[in-house]
Amino acid sequence: MTNFLLNDRLVSTEESAGMTLLEFIRGVACLSGTKDACREGECGACTVLVGSRAADGTVAYKACASCLLPLGDIDGCHVVTVEGLGSEPLTLVQRLLVEHSASQCGFCTPGIVLSLTGFALASPDLSYDAAVDALDGNICRCTGYASIRNAARALCEALAGAAKHPGQRQEVLLATGVVPAYFRGIPGRLAELKAAPVAACGKNTIAVAGGTDLFVQKPEQLMGSDLCFLSKRRDLDYIREDKGLLLVGGAVAIEDFRNSAVVQRHFPALAGDLLLHSSAILRNKATLAGNIVNASPIGDATIILLALNASLTITGEGGRKREVPLDKFYLGYKKTDLACGELVSEIAIPLPSEGVRYNFEKVSNRTTLDIAAVNSALLLATGSDGAVTGLRVSAGGVGPVPMLLPGIEKFHGRKPDASFFQDLSKAALAAAAPIDDIRGSAEYKRLLLGQLMLAHARALAPVEAA
Ligand SMILES: Cc1cc2nc3c(=O)[nH]c(=O)nc-3n(C[C@H](O)[C@H](O)[C@H](O)COP(=O)(O)OP(=O)(O)OC[C@H]3O[C@@H](n4cnc5c(N)ncnc54)[C@H](O)[C@@H]3O)c2cc1C
Ligand code: FES
Ligand code: FES
Predict the structure, then answer these.
(1) pLDDT of 293-312, one tens digit each?
(2) Residues 63, 278: contact at Cβ < 8 Å?
(3) Taking CA atoms, which of 28, 335, 410, 427 is between 20 and 30 Å from 68?
(4) Which helix (H) or strand (E) holds 361?
(5) DSSP run (H or E) holding 322
(6) Given strand 239-242, what is the order of strands in its sheet?
């Protein structure tokens, strides 16, 4: 039995925990405002808000693609569709979209309304740039993005000042008509909901984290499978610093990682780099651990974590733990050192010391919402004399597994100047073994990898590389 609030009403359903929320909303609850289009997380037409109760009793809302979200994942949550925002009167977001002529055929509009409402509920700084980022998964085929961005700008102006008083955010949003009055009672109603016990993960269950890989690949099979939902595992949802390591729980969503203050303090570049991963409505659910275990040779988070020298804590049945460096985790194409029933319970990333430089590059057909043709990350440490004391270079899309460039020791002791990066480029070309696929020919990807080494040079040492 799954219990949740759908807009203003309580839903208790015996439908399969693996049924997608989109299917439930349209097919069972008969609410047709949420649109059904790509079913692959690509278009944003199915965007809804999911509010989860935090430990302190407050409700945190995230905009999510309902086509990749299983019912079991929203047990105990508040789901908001466009019907739940009301039409008489229009909400502030809806009104601004009308005033700025930001809707023509209207197919994408419910998704855009939900993404902007989610932004108003959750964005720490309520900036215009953050509003545009919040829309990066919502595709509109006919209006043109300028008018949608104008509406987003007007929303930021209407909410100016609200970011300074995070404790009063909900009251401001109620007063300005961004959310309807019934939102006030949601925390209390969620507290009274009887949530299902958290299903244990084991040999006969499939672990669902964000579901953004699983529900694209095998949605039908998941309908009839025993699933365990890692988003319900509060013990796996943490980011903290300890003894020179950044420790990240195995259920942490990429967007939470990106926005975390401790991550931004130690790895300021990651906030921008991880914006290149999928889109906000997917990053709100997709996890770092899911990216690693999915074992795609071009996973963006995986390539970044490989360069950062991350290691994994793997927990098996009975709580047995073992540590595996990420660079030893991949055994072959889509083959990992993870036994049946084991979970990646923690990712540990060494904190960078003074003078360590890092860069990530990704080449894809579109800047956002696209998988890389080739990506690469580099971590470079230099001593007081400027010579290289440590170097890690990772690359995706150039072999069957995420690659860590071998034989890197020969670069130690050299100055990271233009000739250093030219030689690094040659070494990368020699190590790469890509194949032809829809993202490009093997030769194109090899050449691209060589160029990415030079792009690292430009990003890290603009003067020497010029
Ligand atoms: C439209 C679209 C765009 C995308 N764009 C990108 C992109 O730009 N870059 C990119 O890298 N990826 C992209 N992806 C792929 C996907 O979003 C990522 O790989 C994501 O990080 C997967 O995480 P998840 O939590 O959703 O994994 P899930 O789908 O929940 O799980 C993936 C696999 O990992 C297993 N798993 C998950 N967590 C654990 C754990 N803690 N322990 C053990 N096993 C676990 C699951 O059982 C499953 O086998 C995109 C996907 C879509 C649909
Ligand atoms: S239907 Fe396209 S993202 Fe869900
Ligand atoms: S208004 Fe037609 S797709 Fe956006």
Answers:
(1) 999 999 999 999 999 999 99
(2) no
(3) 335
(4) strand 356-363
(5) strand 321-325
(6) 239-242, 245-249, 343-350, 311-315, 321-325
Structure tokens at 235: 């013990």
- Looking at the whole model, is its pTM more than 0.85? yes
Q: Which amino acid is at 315?
A: T
Q: Give 147-174 pLDDT, tens digit per residue.
A: 999 999 999 999 998 888 888 899 999 9
Give the tens place of pLDDT for each residue, 33-77. 999 999 999 999 999 999 999 988 899 999 999 999 999 999 999
What domains, with CATH codes, occur in the chain? Answer: 2-84+183-232 (3.10.20.30), 92-179 (1.10.150.120), 234-465 (3.30.465.10)
Peptide bond before 416: cis, by omega within 30 degrees of 0?
no
Rounded CA separation 92/117 (Å) = 9
Q: For residue 422, what pLDDT is reported?
A: 96
Ligand 1 atom nearest residue 299's Cα: 11
Check pocket membership of 146 for ligand 3, CB cut-off 6 A: no
Question: Beta strands of 170-244 (E only): which ranges?
Answer: 206-208, 227-229, 239-242
